[in-house]
# Entry
Amino acid sequence: MTDVDVTVAATADVDGRAQIGAGTRIWHLAQIREDAALGRNCNIGRGAYVGPGVTIGDNVKLQNYSLVYEPAVLGDGVFIGPAAVLTNDEYPRAVTPSGRLKTDDDWTTVGVTIGEGAAIGARAVCVAPVTVGRWALVAAGAVVTKDVPDFALVVGVPARRVGWVGRSGRPLVAEDGGVWVCPETGAEYTEKDGRLTENISVVDGGKSF
# Structure
């Protein structure tokens, strides 16, 4: 079911069984498959693909030609860069060991989970079933094969953590005592046992996080 306040380009392919939230815009050549659920105020770029049953939160951006395969789950405010791919098959083969073309009954899909506010850079690949944590940043061209902690900045093939980022996406600056500070907002974070947590509440437009 699609909300009346939705923009869909004439060349887009949106299955009638998909759920599209108010304010969402779906651009040229994008495809939204059956039973996908998109939240409010999303922006689905040219040629992007959303697989059957994929769940996408509010205020999500899928840039041009990004591919989100089922059963991926994307939190609110997620960014998927141009030509990025979220896979869904741990052991990909076109055929069975006997050489018969595989059907849906011959494999089990596994999904990628992207936490609130996280960003996946252009042409990055997230190999299912990984989880990318809240507000993490995956650099362009990275290949994610292991779970990414909240606020982590990961780069390379395979992706490895090289720093931390805040909600603004800017790399955090280290201070004494395991404290990290965002150079843009001044927000403080504490690192402990390889994890980063926010020290204080963040207020944006009257909403406290």
